[in-house]
Amino acid sequence: MKNFLLLATLFFSVQGMAQPTTKLHRRAVLVDTHNDVLSSSVLEGKDISQRLTTGQSDFERWKEGGLDVQFFSIWTDRTPRNKAGFFKDANQEIDSLEIIALRNPSRMALATNYKQVRKGIRQKKLVGLIGVEGGHMIEDDLKKLDSLQRRGMRYMTLTWNNSTSWATSAMDETQHPDSLPQIGLTEFGKKVVRRMNELGVIVDLSHTGERTFYDALATTSRPVLLSHSSVWNICPVFRNVKDDQIKAVAKNGGVICINFYSGFLDSNFAKKMDQLEGTEGKRIKDSIGQNVDAAKLNEIWAKYFSTELEPYRPSISKLVDHIDYIVKLVGDDYAGIGSDFDGVSSVPVGMDDVTKYPLITEELKRRGYSNKSIKKILGGNVMRVMKANFK
Ligand SMILES: [Zn+2]
Q1: What average pLDDT does this structure show over 68-90?
Q2: What is the Å distance from ligand 1's center to 255 Cα?
């Protein structure tokens, strides 16, 4: 009997710890502003209506992770997939998302306005939204911007790693500034931002260089989004945002959604990666390369690369440090979730796929965050920015 009571006490205390957080996570609206499953998985022929054993996302796992709203990244590299160009690539990718939605009407609803987002959440469907990653997809043409908006685009990052003729990227501004004909937004770039405001497309400043970032903030009349960026002061890499940028986003009423990529979260991981990509990597590749062909070398190298980096993977606590940093600097209205799942090669230990979002809620709770703050961070802040932008 005594043992039974002890067990019962233990059971209820464990339940007591776990349940409120789970309940809170389920009740909160969870919004993830960046997922690359379309370009990394769907276009490769994978079917996310089935539970997959590879990759990080599919419908079943989204449900388990308690996700309500997903911005799907429409991304194409600096060399287009189609001969016809970037705009064609973007349209093809939007086609693939529409097909998924048509095939899964009970699980997913595509939304283009705030009312539809709320309706989809009420119906307990995954609300899908279109985010275009890279201004190169409008091919310097406002008509193509309009056209993508008509197809449902509700955010666009002004650049990806590559600059456009009208906006410079974080990569180029930091790594090749001398090769740029101009830095920041051009007059046409400002037109793009104003047109996005008119159309109800959120200006996404992830990937943009600092000059473009501040030019865009001076131009936009609406709150901005950083759909997948982390904090420079914790991990000083080119893609992350500095304190003054965080303060500027807060002043604008925007939101910064934390990217889960290990290399943007943890400076030791980033340093090790730099070493591997630099002289250490060259030395090792040279020593393997003498005995094998190029394909085999790539295979061996990829394995070596991930094995070497494995011990440097950060914890979930490190991920939450980035959220915490923004909250302590400017308050709880400006942080969100922008995982970059299916677009990154390494995530924190335990954060392996979309089923793991509840661990963030648990960690925030453990740190003493109120339910109200947690709800803002999980999705409330992005919902506010959507409402302020969408038509
Ligand atoms: Zn990206």
Answers
A1: 96
A2: 16
